[in-house]
Amino acid sequence: MKTRYIALAISLFVSLSGIAQHNEEVTIEGTYRPKVNKVDKILMQPVKPQQSFEMPGTEVRVLDIEHRFQHELEKMSPLYYNGSNGQMPEAAKNFLMAGFGSRISPVFLYKHNSNLTKNLGLGVGIKHYSSWLDIKDYAPTSFMNNAFNVGLTSSKYKNVQLGWEVYYKNDMYHYYGFDPQQVYNTIGTSFGLTSTTTRNGEFVNDLNIDYHYLFGKLDGGGKEHSAKLSYDLGYVDSWWGKKNYPQKLGLALGAQYANDQFPGQAGEDHLIFKVNPYFEMKDDFYRLHLGVRMDGATDFVTTTGMLSVHPDLKGSLSVIDNAVEFYAGLNGGRKLFTYSDMITDNPFVDTRLNMEVTTVKLGFEGGIRTHLMKTMDIHVGVRYRHTDNDPFFHEVSATTAKPYNSFDVVYDETRTVSVMGNVRWLATDKMVVDAAFTYNNYKMTNEAHPWFRPGLEGDLKLSYRFTDAFGMNANFLYQGQRWAMNDVFDLGLGADWHVNDQLTVFAKLNNVANQKYQLYYDYPVGGIQAFAGLKIRF
Q1: pLDDT given for residue 73 in this prediction
Q2: End-to-end CA distance of the chain
Q3: Which residues are paired to 395 by β-bridges?
Q4: DSSP 342
Q5: Does the predicted TM-score (pTM) go above 0.90?
Q6: Could you tell me which residues come within 8 angstroms of residue 203 by beta carbon, excluding any fewer than 6 positions away?
Q7: What is the pLDDT of residue 537?
Q8: How many CB atoms lie within 10 A of CB 40?
């Protein structure tokens, strides 16, 4: 989602999600999860998607805000640790999680997964996450997030899988000093079509369509329509070399449209599109992707148009029996950050702002991934981005006519260099260590500072399982050299007890040091927090 965006998030306003079966983790996390664009592996043999929806696992990490750093790099091997002799959890038709805490309470998550027929799968999800009506340190402060989704997947058609989902979200935020209270409602749907097999001399398809309608109590009203379309058509054949390593000639097309209408200002319409021809090839020890991306953008308000051309190049070389991989790539392109994107990061961003198209004029990424030891993955990478209209949240002065404690968005041309790395180490059959860091250097064109973006980030997680049934974990989070009130320091402790295959009891203690840091001006993290609950699989 958003490597060029702000690597911070609001502390009291969070959502609930289940992720990654491979590490059995359910995370109550911040709504903003910035990630570096991964160096995609070139896939010319699509894998048939599972006829099921991902179910959450068993480990729990609960925070007022879960800092998802930009230095989350892709590992070379699927190292994981779930404390159950390295076994993957079996899929369950139903998953229920409920918990209560000293500041954030209650939490409720239900997910259902089943096959209606041999070729038709059903997924249903309900979640609720809220604070007490009056958080003492920051009264009158409260928030509530609700969501519902239902989806279907079908592989009835030959070599093609279809997926469809509809969802509804309701988010309410109230913070001291801010008037009025913000209420956001979102109705959305998505559709996907994917080829599940590939044969030489055949075409493969990948189609995705997304639409949402945002409305609610937004400074007296307002609404947004947003639609995205992406389509990738490829032809696969073995023009040379081994039959099991065919080449692929492809064309990726994309478009994004957004319409924003708020009281007291003219509506805005934006349209961007891309045309991206490419060629891919691979062998036992290398992968290569050669392409060019052509972008267009039109602002219907000013009736102006823009065209640009960007590289789309990436490749990798594996040595020492594929235990070491060197990779590099050049990229670029346009993206429209909608108002929905903005409030996902910061619910109190002011509605009276101009939405603009952000352009990565040139991006570079390179690095080394290693798996020389069976128990350790190491990844070190370098990223560079020259970005036009890079968005930054900026505090609105209390002396203006805009609401107090609200934020607007400023755009600037930036050049960012990042050095990052992470290590995953299975120290013993009972302990796993995950460590990550990032150093960022920003060069601004107009703004004095890279507002709220950290220069240094660190993340350390330790997990230890005393028995198959009982385990504990610790998290240390740090963000420094920030152009904000202070640095971020957060220490959390957690434990989980597997009563049986169906029932898990968990507990979490967040911000153990009771740090009063602020992620944004006047939006401090809640103090020390205790949280506990149950998870049931059936």
Answers
A1: 61
A2: 32
A3: 407
A4: H
A5: no
A6: 195, 233, 234, 235, 236
A7: 87
A8: 11
